[in-house]
Structures are given as structure tokens and as C-alpha cells.
Amino acid sequence: MGTKSTPPGFRQITRRDGIFQEQVHDTYKIKGKLLEPTICPECNAVFHHGRWQWLKAPADAHQHNCPACQRILDHNPAGFLTLEGDFLYVHHDEIINLIHNIETKEKTEHPLKRIMAMEEENNTMLITTTDIHLARGIGEAIHDAYQGNLEFHYNPAENLLRAHWSH
């Protein structure tokens, strides 16, 4: 006998292996389906086949801000990466080039992964991103290239990542 949620012949099993359904709440994720094609008036990314892509926009495309541009307009980053230490000052140009190369590579395939701002003060740099995975990827690339200490703090309730690298 089944219940409302369980078909007849099956029984509910309680999992004890620690696997759980990830609950991500992203206020910038578009609710429902956008009409296709839709173009972002800010960056010209095109929503086509269920995702944002860099395509030539048709003349009859609808308009809607993509989640990355909306984050930028709202000044609400998803990722914060802080870099600090004397090593940053000594290797500043190399690290900046690495950061831009990673963003360019990611943004080419994923239009929603962008750097919002890079602020520098003394031997500290704060990089804000529109995507948590870009902040993590930049932090990991810097750590792989130069070692040092890399820490992450993820807040699932806000879909927010804070990363800190020092050397």
C-alpha cells in the first residue's frame, strides 16, 4: 500500500549516508521561462535554448536584463575574493593578468560569469564577481600558481561566496 507521495508497492526509505538535496536560493535566477529569443539590453547576451549565450541577436528579440547585468546594476556581487600580502605587491602585474585571463575564458563560455569590480588598497585587492564559481576559480588558479593560503566561506542562504588568499 502506498501513500500520497509513494506509489503502491514502494516504501519510503530514510537515507543515512549524509546525502541531502542542496537548497540554493538565488534571487537573481529568473523565475519561469523567458520568451525566446531574449536579449539583454546591457551586455547583448542572448537567452536561447534555455540559457544565456553570446549569439547574434535577431531583430525581433525580446528584452530582459540577464542575471549578471542585474547584479551589476544592483551592486550586489555573488562572489568576493580578497587577495593580500607582500607577494601580491611584488607579483601584481602577473596576478592581474592571470585574473583577466580566467575571466575572459569563463565569460566566453558562460556570459553570466563576470568580474564586477577590482579595488586595491595597500597590499590588498578585493575582486567582486557576478558568480560564486568565478570567484572560486580565480582563487584556486592563484593558489595553484603561487601557493599561499586560500580559504572559502560559502553562505547557502544567500548564495554568496567569500574567498581569501594571502601569501
Description:
The longest helix is centred in the middle third of the chain and has 18 residues, at 92-109. The strands form 2 sheets. The chain has a 5-stranded mixed beta sheet with strand order 6-7-5-9-8. Strands 3-2-1-4 form a 4-stranded mixed beta sheet, with no helix packed on it. It has helices at residues 67-74, 86-90, 92-109, 132-146; strands at 38-39, 46-48, 51-53, 62-63, 79-84, 115-121, 124-129, 149-155, 160-166. It has 4 helices and 9 strands. The protein has a domain at 73-166: Alpha-Beta Plaits. Helix content is 28%, strand content 26%. It is globular and about 55 Å long.
Topology:
Elements: E1 38-39, E2 46-48, E3 51-53, E4 62-63, H1 67-74, E5 79-84, H2 86-90, H3 92-109, E6 115-121, E7 124-129, H4 132-146, E8 149-155, E9 160-166
Parallel strand pairs: 1-4, 5-9
Antiparallel strand pairs: 1-2, 2-3, 5-7, 6-7, 8-9
Helix pairs in contact: 3-4
Question: How would you summarize what this structure contains?
Answer:
The chain has a domain at 73-166: Alpha-Beta Plaits (2-Layer Sandwich), CATH 3.30.70.
Q: Judging from the principal axes of the Cα atoms, what is the shape?
A: globular
Helix content: 25-40%
Order of secondary-structure elements:
EEEEHEHHEEHEE
CATH topology of the domain at 73-166: Alpha-Beta Plaits
Features:
167 residues, alpha+beta, Alpha-Beta Plaits, 5-stranded mixed β-sheet, 4-stranded mixed β-sheet, 4 helices, globular
